[in-house]
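// run 5 | inverse folding | seed 20
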């Protein structure tokens, strides 16, 4: 063997040993991170199963309202009604007829948020790729727009919350027990008197708020009447085709809209290759040093609770509506209790990558910005008294690398890339959805 060959052989041997050693080190490191994550979650919740989200067809294990049990028939009806632009039969302006739906502000392409800073139902025009270009129609005044004074929250994983909206005003049970004096007659909040949980109450109230009409002629002409018969056979026919039952069907559908196929969920179910090394590091920060779990817990990482983090409200200069004081005060604007002022409900952290704005006022434009904000622990809204801020809103002392790893976990490990499975292929009416105004049709390529 020549001296050159000997040298090459030695170098190759060293390279093999070195690379194999590195590979083993990486493998060992990943196993160590996984072991720590398993220990952290088990210590906090008792088991990995405690954070698992059931698949959408596992109706027996999806949280439901005892007064509105989940059935396949009810879910199927609700899925269509949620997206049906043909329900827009009672608009302020005739031109708005059949142009919007529940999904206008909560659609799959935007993680079941609105896709832009402020969702618009009636009076909105256009869609873009995922709702980001929807804007006010020239045929409407701002005072006529169907728009809310706060960022549209997602319906994703709301099965794990008992009350709905940022202030939790919808729901006649649980956290709203004792708030009966605030269920103002002749307002949407009066629907709490029906005794349903938040998702059901909001769905029923929302049909009226957004002027979506359950019209028997429309149901008969488009095959919905038979679906109501299948979904509510126990209800007398004279009461079956109602706004309440339509709302219950929509709520049943909303409950099965779950991020069960996100990588973190796959990991919880035993797929050890589901998370990257950086996602594992971020997960350990989430359930460890960063203590994100103190608020974002449970399968949806959105336990019901209200906290003040000093985030800004919608920017008046870019909003279509005046931000009223009750909205600014969050939970306190509903309960009337000073101690509840400026507190807002905990949102799910799944599928945030689909959104363009974050926080109840949409004041952040990236997930990393929110994490950096919480890491600093300095409120951005000068109107929120320091005494109201959550005890958990303190500096986290995370390094730049840790912020990046935590961001990677939230952005990617908590991202279910197949939310389109919750969208119907078509509607019985043949209408376009989630919007059916002329510009949206062009944007979506829908006739």
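// decoded
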């Amino acid at each position: 063997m020549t001296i050159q060959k000997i040298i090459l052989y030695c170098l190759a041997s060293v390279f093999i040993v070195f690379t194999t050693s590195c590979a083993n080190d990486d493998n060992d490191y990943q196993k160590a991170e996984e072991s720590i994550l398993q220990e952290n979650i088990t210590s906090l919740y008792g088991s990995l199963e405690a954070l698992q989200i059931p698949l959408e067809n596992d109706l027996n294990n999806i949280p439901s309202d005892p007064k509105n049990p989940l059935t396949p028939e009810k879910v199927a009806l609700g899925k269509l009604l949620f997206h049906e632009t043909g329900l827009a039969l009672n608009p302020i302006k005739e031109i708005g007829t059949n142009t919007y739906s529940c999904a206008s502000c909560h659609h799959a392409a935007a993680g079941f948020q609105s896709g832009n800073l402020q969702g618009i139902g009636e009076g909105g025009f256009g869609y873009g790729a995922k709702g980001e270009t929807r804007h006010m129609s020239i045929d409407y005044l701002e005072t006529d727009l169907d728009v809310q004074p706060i960022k549209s929250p997602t319906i994703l994983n709301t099965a794990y919350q008992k009350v709905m909206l940022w202030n939790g005003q919808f729901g006649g049970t649980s956290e709203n027990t004792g708030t009966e004096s605030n269920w103002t007659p002749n307002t949407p909040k009066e629907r709490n008197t029906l005794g349903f949980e938040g998702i059901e109450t909001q769905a029923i109230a929302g049909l009226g708020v957004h002027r979506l009409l359950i019209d028997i002629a429309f149901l008969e002409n488009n095959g919905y009447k038979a679906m109501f018969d299948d979904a509510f056979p126990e209800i007398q026919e004279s009461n079956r085709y109602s706004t309440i039952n339509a709302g219950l069907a929509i709520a049943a559908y909303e409950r099965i809209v779950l991020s069960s196929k996100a990588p973190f969920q796959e990991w919880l179910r035993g797929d050890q290759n589901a998370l990257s090394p950086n996602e594992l590091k971020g997960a350990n920060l989430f359930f460890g040093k960063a203590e994100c779990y103190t608020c974002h817990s449970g399968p949806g990482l959105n336990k019901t609770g209200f906290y003040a983090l000093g985030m800004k409200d919608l920017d008046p200069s870019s909003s279509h509506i005046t931000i009223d004081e009750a909205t600014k005060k969050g939970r306190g604007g509903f309960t009337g209790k000073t101690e509840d002022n400026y507190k807002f409900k905990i949102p799910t952290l799944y599928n945030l990558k689909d959104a363009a704005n974050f926080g109840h006022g949409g004041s952040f434009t990236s997930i990393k910005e929110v994490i950096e904000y919480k890491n600093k622990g300095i409120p951005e809204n000068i109107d929120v008294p320091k005494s109201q801020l959550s005890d958990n809103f303190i500096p986290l002392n995370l390094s730049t690398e840790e912020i990046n790893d935590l961001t990677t976990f939230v952005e990617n490990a908590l991202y279910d890339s197949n939310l389109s499975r919750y969208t119907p292929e078509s509607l019985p009416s043949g209408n376009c959805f989630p919007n059916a105004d002329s510009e949206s049709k062009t944007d979506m390529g829908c006739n």
